[in-house]
Design goal:
single chain, alpha/beta, elongated, Ribosomal Protein L4, Chain: A, 2 domains
Length: 214
């Protein structure tokens, strides 16, 4: 069992949660986690780089001079890749780099990523995060009270979309806000710290139990 402290906005411990490792798969599946991270990185690639091959550049197809007897190297038409202004040899074209993983594997990779953060003491739980209006200064002070962002980055996970919280955090470097339903292994491993609201963390645990019963 992992004892996880719950803090308030002032950084004071007010509660604790006992987390069973089996709720997140029991152990970290490193090969599956790597596969998921490679997939998320690949899916961010645009693949729009393109260059012109010899069939796409302007110029005649006439052979410039005869093959033999000139004393010069043999050469084809003016559009060949051997000449300045010709097409690129092995030209790049539009390409789809995207990869896919089954939903169950993506969920297991997410659980492994969360468990890895738990085992390395990089998960912080706060009782609640709510703002009457967007205020970056207030949110930054909360992160300071929780001793987050002294080094590295932080992924803030909430139970549902909150515009005031999102606007309060968007101007703070290396901080991202995400609903728990969109949590994935790529974003978890891309940040050094995980900040959960208590409601979001409990919903993640209950969701995993629901999936096991189905």
């Amino acid at each position: 069992m992992i004892d996880l402290a719950v803090y308030n906005k002032d950084g004071e411990e007010i509660d604790s949660l006992k987390v069973d490792e089996s709720a997140f798969g029991g152990s970290v599946r490193y090969p599956l986690l790597k596969q998921a991270i490679v997939m998320y990185h690949a899916n961010k690639r645009v693949g729009t780089a393109a260059t012109k091959g010899r069939s796409m550049v302007a110029g005649s197809t006439r052979k410039l001079f005869r093959q033999k007897g000139t004393g010069s190297a043999r050469i084809g038409n003016i559009r060949t890749g051997k000449r300045v202004g010709g097409g690129v040899t092995f030209a790049k074209g539009l390409r789809d780099f995207s990869k896919r993983m089954p939903k169950k594997q993506r969920r297991l990779a997410r659980d492994s990523a969360v468990l890895a953060k738990l085992l390395s003491n990089n998960v912080v739980v706060v009782d609640e995060l709510s703002f009457e209006k967007p205020k970056t200064k207030d949110f930054a002070s909360i992160l300071g009270n929780l001793k987050i962002l002294s080094k590295g980055s932080c992924l803030v996970t909430i139970s549902s979309i909150d515009d005031n919280l999102y606007k309060s955090a968007r101007n703070i470097p290396r901080v991202a806000v995400m609903p728990v339903a969109e949590l994935n292994a790529g974003d978890i491993c891309g940040h050094s710290k995980l900040l959960f609201t208590k409601e979001a963390f409990l919903s993640l645990l209950n969701k995993d139990k629901t999936n096991e019963n189905q």
